[in-house]
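Here is one chain, start to finish.
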Amino acid sequence: MLERRSPSSHDDLVDHLVRSTALPRGEAARVVLDVLAYFDETTEEFVRRRHRELQAGGATNPRIFERIAAELPHRAVAPPKLSLRQLRRIVYG
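Its structure:
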């Protein structure tokens, strides 16, 4: 199951979207959560979803799997969980 982050943990991004677009704050927060959920998708979930989408569009399995294989290297990867010490070392060296 996808972990839903609190919109307040991304206030800076929501503020940026409100300033740079015509989106009201609530809709900007929803967009941020939708994008984060999209990138939280596991590899397995991505492959299954893309297969369904491409199949619904009429593509055949050989083309579907070639396309998915080409798309996978361009997926965003979540960083590993970092301890507080690791975070401090990133900032202070």
